[in-house]
Structure formats: C-alpha cells, structure tokens
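Changelog-adjacent note: as of this version, every example in the card shows the full chain rather than a window. The one below runs 264 residues end to end.
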Amino acid sequence: MLKVVVIGVGHLGRHHARILSEMDNAELVAVVDPDPQQGQAIAASCNTQWLPDLNEVPQQLDMAVIAVPTVLHEKCAIPLLEARVACLIEKPMAPDPETCQRIIDCAEANQTLVAVGHVERFNPAAKRAIELGIEARFIEAHRLAPYSFRSTDVGVVLDLMIHDIDLANAWTQSEVVAVDAVGGATFSPSEDIASARIRYANGAVANLTASRLSLKPMRRFRVFGPDSYLSVDSQEKYALLVKKSGKFSPEMLKEISQSDNPQA
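Full-length structure tokens:
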C-alpha cells in the first residue's frame, strides 16, 4: 500500500485528500497545511492527521501531492524528490521554465517520478474525443471564468489556458513552430485575459482564449478535421460530433446550392 501525503488542502488539495483517503491501495498518512482550521477539518473528514509544516512529514513516504500556490512548488518538491518520494504537482509545475527545469533535474538525479496534474487530458470526454482520431487542422478553445481571487500568483495562461495548451499538444502530437499572443492585466499583477494562436509543424493551428474576468464560465474545445467537426463543452457537459457523409462531394454541394428546392 502506498503511503501518501497531501501538501496544501485548499481548493484543489482537499479533493486530492478525499480521493486518496477512499482508495484501497493508498494510505493517506497526513495532510499538511499552515491553516489549522482548514488542515484539521480536512484531516478529520479524511480520517488522517494534520501537520502544520512539511518538515514534520513522516520519513517513510512513497508519494506526495503538492497543491500549494505555484510559487511554493519548488520549495516543497525538491526536498521530497531528494528523499526519493514521487511527487504529483498541481499545474502549473512552476511559474517559469527555469524553475521547472530545476525540479525535473532533481527528479532525474534522484531517479524519482514527478508528474504534473493536467487533469483535463484524463477527462472522460476529452479522452474519448482524442480516441476518435480526428486529424486536427484547426483547434479553437475558450476557457472563461469569473474572477475568483485564487491563483493570482500566476497569470491566466498558467492558471486556465494551460489546460487547453496541453489538450492541443496532446491532440496534434506535433512540435510548436510559432506562437502569436496578446493579453492584459485588469485586477491581477499578471494577465487576466489572453488570446494565443499556436502553429504546429504538421500544419495544425490552435486559437486559444482564456479569461478570468467573465461573468459566466465557459469551457469549450472545438476540433475541425478534413471530414468532421467535434465540439466538447465541459461546462455544459455535452459533446457534438458532425461527420461528412460518404456520399458528400463538392459537386453535390454545388448542385444543392443551385437547386430551386435545396431541402429536397
């Protein structure tokens, strides 16, 4: 049985703790959080102990889930990786590429697993959509949310758009060759709204929009292929697939458009 600890039991960490406490092959040995009220409440609901500091974590661990603010990911991950404790780090891995690389280098030096919680790739709807094998020529994604006052230590690209960047990369399985992007800050020190156009080596293009200034949430991912169109709406929980008929041809479309009765 894996001995696991969850570090940070706020908005996301509390869900990690709950799920781990219900798993048959894992033992949640502790939750760590500097807030006594939150930490004790989650520990009680998960039938485990609360610890106020990472230094008090038991030595014999197999895995840790790190769900603290992004700027603290490296501080938490490095000592655990050096102790050869596998780490699942909530996205984004770190606030900049240099910090990400230090975490990766530490994991490799200690031959220890490190993973990042890009959960959208494992969303059942997204998994099924990718399994359809649609050749993506154009991808369009909108991920909008009201301002929540959370995750303001990073911009909306690392907070929200990162999900759709990961999905687009997973779908195209191709190298990025160019990025054009624009964004702006309204309430936060970094960008609150951003739009990016990503070009891939295989010719695919992805237009991604993310905002945390919207009145209504939206999580919509569209893929356009040579003979089909797919829309996955994670907010409204539906998917739509439109495929071209085997009898379809440009000539037939022209004939229909010129007909006196196109609907016949």
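Structural remarks: The longest strand covers residues 176-184.
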